[in-house]
Each structure stands twice: as C-alpha cells, then as structure tokens.
C-alpha cells in the first residue's frame, strides 16, 4: 500500500533517524488562554514547526503542511512547563510524508520525568521552487517501533483517502439531486 513512484530506486531512501528531531520551548504567560493554561493553538504551531523541520530534512527541501490529523490534547500544559515536541517521518508516498509528533512536558525547575501531553499526525507535501509537488525519498524504518508506526500510517492514509472519496461521492450525489451546497 505504499506509493513510492515508478522506480523505487531513483531516489535513495533515508532511515527514520536521519530527520527525527526534537523542538523544546518553555511556556510563558504569553502562551496562555483564558483558563490560564497554554493555548492549544500555541502547541499546534510548535507541532507544525517541528513536523515541518522533519519533512524538510527528509525531503531535502521545502515541504508544506497538507493536513493535520488526530491532534490530541491529553493533559493541560502550564506556564513554566518545558515542552518537548518530538517528530519523525512515519510514512512516505510519491511526494507526501506523514510525520508523527509526540508532545512531552516537564516542569522547568523539577527533575521529574516528562509526561506525554499531546500527539498529532501531519501530512506534508514536498514542493519545488514553483510550488509543484516533487518526489521524496522512501523512509526506511529502523526499529520495530518505526515499522509499527509505518504500518499505522498506511492505515491512516487509507482512511483519509476513503473519507475524501466518500465526501466527494456525497457532494456529487447531492448536486445530481439538485441540492446546492
């Protein structure tokens, strides 16, 4: 179920570890919402920043966010938390990549283990100077965990494509019935 292009060997693959990264940021009062915890949008931007860096590293050039799936906020983030946003490429297609992101938080002044506070999956498209899609190297999973993430990413891709097709079919059917949306 991979979409690796016509000849898989024309771009050398890259191991997962080649582009994996962690972005760390301390949360301040400028990051809070009306409840006094860190605004979800601030966390989402950090997630997109880390995922974009990983996608650019893996593809060897510019990559743009195509979609964000399953952004889950598991625990509130507080002022004074040191946020670690860990990202890696889980799956690659012809010009697209799924990047998995795990968000961890720890108190800046304590030596307790970090807690997972969020996770997300983003799809990036590699683009050339004109903004047109360009080929990306195949990701080569290195560990059993990387292999599992790759398989799960393929399932998410199948669901994204099926959902897109179902919506398209529904809109076409409604248009044929005379409904204007």
SSE inventory with pairings:
Layout: E1 14-15, E2 21-26, H1 40-59, E3 63-73, E4 81-92, E5 96-107, E6 115-126, E7 139-140, H2 144-176
Parallel strand pairs: 1-7
Antiparallel strand pairs: 2-4, 3-6, 4-5, 5-6
Enumerate the spans where pLDDT stays under 50 for 5 or more consecutive residues.
1-8
Report the strand count: 7
Globally, the shape reads globular
The total of helices stands at: 2
- The helix-strand sequence is EEHEEEEEH
**C-alpha Rg, in Å?**
19 Å
Distance between the termini: 34 Å
Strand residue content:
25-35%
Structural class, judged by helices and strands?
A: alpha+beta
Subunit arrangement of the protein? single chain
Please bin the fraction of helical residues. 25-40%
The overall pLDDT average reads 93
Report the biggest beta sheet as strand number plus sense, adding barrel if it closes.
5 strands, antiparallel
Short synopsis of the structure:
The chain is built from two helices and seven strands; from the N terminus they run ββαβββββα. By secondary structure, the chain is α+β, with helices and mostly antiparallel strands. The strands form two sheets. Strands 2-4-5-6-3 form a five-stranded antiparallel sheet. The protein has a two-stranded parallel ribbon with strand order 1-7.
